[in-house]
Automatic annotation (TrEMBL):
It comes from the Bacteria. It comes from Plantactinospora siamensis. This is Nuclear transport factor 2 family protein. Residues 4-105 form the SnoaL-like domain. Coiled coil: none annotated.
Length: 115
């Protein structure tokens, strides 16, 4: 699913201006992101969250760990965060709620995190 691929691309984009452009394209203006470590609303907070994760895990890349399963306005997918082609450091599972072609909500779960 192209929207989810662009979503992950925004997490992988180091350039702040390009990252914000992707976030604005992918997310609804009132979009929310919730996982065990964060709960944010709107593009400014989402952008700040992504920037913080990039700073913490510099040099690592988000990738899909399998196909995106989607129906109606929902998508679920497993992702990896790790070195390109290497063993993931973090594994997660997200559910995205989509409205009008943009992500409205992401509910994230962390299956594997570093100690």
């Amino acid at each position: 699913m192209q929207l989810i691929e662009k979503y992950l691309e925004s997490w992988n984009t180091a350039d702040p201006a390009l990252r914000r452009k992707l976030i604005d394209e992918v997310w609804a203006a009132d979009g929310t992101y919730t996982d065990p470590l964060a709960e944010v609303t709107g593009p400014d907070q989402i952008d700040a969250l992504v920037a913080g994760v990039r700073q913490q895990f510099g040099g690592l890349e988000f990738s899909l760990a399998g196909p995106v399963d989607a129906h109606h306005d929902l998508a679920r997918f497993t992702w990896h965060l790790g070195p390109r082609g290497g063993e993931p450091v973090v594994v997660g599972f997200d559910v995205a709620v989509i409205a009008d072609g943009r992500i409205r909500h992401v509910l994230g779960f962390l299956d594997k995190v570093p100690a």
